[in-house]
Each structure stands twice: as structure tokens, then as C-alpha cells.
Amino acid sequence: MAENGTQRGRQRLADRVRLELEREIVVGDLAPGVRLDEVGLAERYAVSRTPVREALMQLAASGLVEMRPRQGALVAAIGTFQLAEMFEVMSELEALCARLAARRMTPRERDGLAALHAACAPYLDGADADGYYDMNLRFHEAIYAGSHNVFLEQETRKIRRRVSPYRRIQLHRPGRLADSHAEHGQVVAAIRAGDQERAAQLLRDHVAVQSGTFVDFLSSVGRLPGHESDAPQRPAARAATQRRAATQG
Amino acid sequence: MAENGTQRGRQRLADRVRLELEREIVVGDLAPGVRLDEVGLAERYAVSRTPVREALMQLAASGLVEMRPRQGALVAAIGTFQLAEMFEVMSELEALCARLAARRMTPRERDGLAALHAACAPYLDGADADGYYDMNLRFHEAIYAGSHNVFLEQETRKIRRRVSPYRRIQLHRPGRLADSHAEHGQVVAAIRAGDQERAAQLLRDHVAVQSGTFVDFLSSVGRLPGHESDAPQRPAARAATQRRAATQG
DNA sequence: CGGCGCAATCTTGTATACAAACGGGCGAGG
DNA sequence: CCTCGCCCGTTTGTATACAAGATTGCGCCG
């Protein structure tokens, strides 16, 4: 409707490039801080620079890519401080989603949410964090959709996508998966019961806790991307950058 | 930091075009639904199509412009339904800003906010809605900044910009200015007192009321932009479109 | 007389060519 | 030996040329 900008068109090269780049960034194939050379990407996708530029700008607008005036584009490296800010907003938006979902979800949607929650369980045993991550995403998005507010749904999803490169790792903490699942269970119960305030509070805490564990993780490792997206790797020669990007993709 | 995409660069043509277009849209010189022809804008700003395209895409990403796949760009015409959705989100984000501002604002910031509130008063007598509108904006933005969450500040501002083409008119309702000012006063008091919940609730209601009055206004006039941004005026010939755009600018 | 299909024209999407600016490396001077 | 400044290569920003899709108007057929 809005934030996606030009999304409905199905065969534009710029969109194809954008979707592919977005996927690689969100999945983690392109790490934060990596330089995105226009001609390199153009060669890689066998298109000209024009669609690549368009894609980069769209991604910059969505926050996944940072474009410096005449210095090119990098995969956005979000500092710990900004990340905390984003979690603060995201927890509030998700809480709003939960509140509205508790109020507006149809019985069918409530059942679907419970089903999604149940579908997360199998991944706990195998400690399949990646598998759980995907189901977890679907669970949260079901709540977004349950708000019956498409704009809210999209905004929340946008922020989630934006922090997703940094969230994946945190679920690998021992015991976090089980805790997360248990918290989901409480949220489902509150939503099914139509308890708006409880649903909101539970999901807010759920997200905020993840934020907390994330910050813990960061400080334990010793500050990953830096406070101000500095030290973004020196590109040295263009060929090297290009090869690295290709390897990572 | 992120959503602005390429904002720091000061002398890029694309940015110049983007800022100018954004201003005209927000101010209302370019009405929702108006077609934005690339070559027309290029001639108008004496640049080539490339920067114009970039500007349009940036605006599309920010939601002020709607780009249809191979049909060009229009000034985004937000339907009443989506508008209501956006107000729902915005009231929540502003409430969050107020809550955080009540908690985090420095004494100096609190004084500044009160000063801004006071500065709004003179516009009430003359019924200068436009003047009040500008001061009102600065007042709200001071609260955003007071949250000390730059990301939240920017997101909230982005949404406000996006609905601003539709908000301007509503302040012309008789008595609304005075009510708005009174509500601001309560918000200031709550923030100065550090009463987070009260500040949040007051600002949420303040924004929600505006939403309500807006919907009232729309239904009284009979639904302005349509439910799904349809009927966007036929451009007929290109020359005509161009001339119209130029006239409005 | 009305509806359908074709074709011309305009508009967008993509590619390429050109210009300007940033960064790094080299050399000269202190 | 270090530092400052210039020069060159690389990369982005802009302009223009080309291709393809869409809309509109006209003509033809029912």
C-alpha cells in the first residue's frame, strides 16, 4: 500500500534485484557493514547500474541499506544504541498489534494462531533454532495481521525485517527457545480470551526480553558492529570487494 | 540515520527535487491524486529524468507518492480507511513519545516545550489556522525529540508527514484550535510533572480526537479521495498535466 | 449506432555515456 | 622520518539514448 513503494509490478528488474538483495541481507548472507558496489552488483545480476541503484535506494529507504552521499552503499550496520531504540519502538508496536488482535481477531484467526504456536513446538526438541526462527516469524506476523490494521501490520513488519539480521543469533542462547515458546503460549491464551491489556503487556515483555538478551549477548562478545557503524572494513581494491560479495551470496 | 535514506548529501539534484516535491505535497500545492509526470517534473526543475525518478522513488518509499508499476507516479491518495489506520498507529506512537518524554526530558527541554506551547497561543485569537498549524507541528516534534529515542522520533515524524496533507483542513473546524491548545496544555503539565501514563493517555486522546474529527469532516463532505484511491483524474494529454502541475506549484 | 480490435503515441523502464567528486598512493618538503 | 599536498584511479551522480509496455483514439465490423 505504501511503504513497499513499487511492489506490485512483478517483472521489473529493479524489483527483482531489490528482493534478492533484501533476502540476502535479512538471511545474513550479506553481513552488516559490507560494501555494495553498484557495478559489482550489476554484473552479478546481469543488469545495468540503473535498476541496481533503484533497488539500493529502496532498501536505503526501508533502512536495510545505508547510502552515504558520494561514497556508495553499505549493508546497514546498526549500532547497539540504535538497536535498543528500535526494540523500544518495536515492542510497543507489537504490543499494539496484540491488543488489537485480542479485540478483533475472528475465531478462525484465533485458531490459526494457536495452530501456528503448536507448530513451533517440534523445533524445540531438536534445538533447531533456524527452523524455530521461521515459525516464530510466522507466529508474530499472524498477530500483526490479526490487528486488522494493514498499515500497522506493514510498519511492524518493516521494523522487524530491519532488525532481523541481528535477531537471528540471539535465539541460539541456551534455553531461550523454550522461554520464547512459553511466552508465546501465554500470548495465545490472552488473545483467545480477548484480554487486550494482558496480551499487549505479554507481547511487549516478550519482545523487550529479546532486546535485553540481545544487548547481553553483544556485551558478552564485546560490541559487534560498533557504536556508530564505524570500522566497516576497508574495501581496498574493487575486485576484492566484488569477489567477497559474490562468495557470500 | 536510516529512513531518510540519502539525506546528508547536500548538493545532489535528486535530493533537491525530493525536498521540493515533498514540501509541495505536504503543504498541499500538489493535491493527492495528481499525476507526477517524470518528464514534466524534469523540465520544471531543469534536470534530467534520472534525479526525478530517484526523488519519486524516495517519496514512494516514504509513502507520500504512489508508484504504479508501469503507469507512473501519483501523489498518494490515502483512503479514509487507511487514514484511520494510520491515525490509530500514530496516536500510539505519539503516546509513546509522550510517555518517554515525561520520563527522560531534561528540565531545559521541559521549559522549551512549555515555551512552545505558550507560543501557540497568539494564533488562537486571530484564528490563524495556518500559523497555529506550524507551531502545533513544532510542539509535537519537541515531544518526539523529548523521547530521546531518535528512531522513534523519526518514525513518528514520518507518519505525521504522510498524513499532513489531510490534517491541515481539519483545524479549520470552529473551536478546534482552542480545544487543541487546551489539550496541549494538559500534556505539558503531565510531562512537566513526570506523569508518564497521564502524558501518554492525554496525547493519545489528543491525536485520536483529531482522527475522529477528521473522519467526521470527511463524511460531512462526502468522502473526498475515495475508498481505494480510485478515480485519480484522467491526465488526458501530457501537456495539460504538465501545465496543471506547473500552475499548482 | 454501439462494441471491439488495432495501431500510433506517449510514458515508463533499462542501458550506456559522460562528468564530477572522493580516496588512496606517491613524491616533495620540513 | 613524518607530514602535507598533488595526481590518478575508481566510483558515484547525471544525462541521454533505446526498448518495451500501456493508454487512447480511430476505424471496422456486427
What layout of secondary structure does this protein have?
2 copies of one chain form a homodimer.
Chain A: H1 13-27, E1 35-36, H2 38-45, H3 49-62, E2 65-68, E3 72-75, H4 80-104, H5 107-120, H6 122-125, H7 129-146, H8 150-167, H9 176-193, H10 196-221, H11 238-248
Antiparallel strand pairs in A: 1-3, 2-3
Helix pairs in contact in A: 1-3, 2-3, 4-7, 4-8, 4-9, 4-10, 5-7, 5-9, 9-10
The structure holds a DNA duplex (30 and 30 nucleotides).
Structure overview:
Two copies of one chain form a homodimer. By secondary structure, chain A is mainly alpha-helical. Chain A contains eleven helices and three strands; from the N terminus they run αβααββαααααααα. In chain A, α4 packs antiparallel against α8 (150-167), α5 (107-120) runs antiparallel to α7 (129-146) and α5 (107-120) packs antiparallel against α9. Chain A is elongated and about 55 Å long. The model of chain A is unreliable at 1-9 and 221-249 (pLDDT under 50). Chain B binds a DNA duplex (30 and 30 nucleotides) through residues 12-14, 37-39, 47-51, 53-54, 69-72, 236-238.
Q: How are helices and strands ordered from N to C of chain A?
A: HEHHEEHHHHHHHH
Radius of gyration of chain A: 19 Å
Oligomeric state of shown chains: homodimer
What is the largest interface, and how many residues per chain? Answer: A-B, 39 and 38 residues
Q: Averaged pLDDT of chain A, please?
A: 82
- Percentage of residues in strands of chain A: under 5%
The largest sheet of chain A, given as strand count, sense and whether it forms a barrel, is: 3 strands, antiparallel
**Tertiary shape of chain A:** elongated
Tell me the number of strands of chain A: 3
Strand order of the largest sheet of chain A: 1-3-2
Low-pLDDT sequence parts of chain A: 1-9, 221-249
What structural class results from the helix and strand content of chain A? Answer: mainly alpha
Report, as a whole number of angstroms, the end-to-end distance of chain A: 30 Å
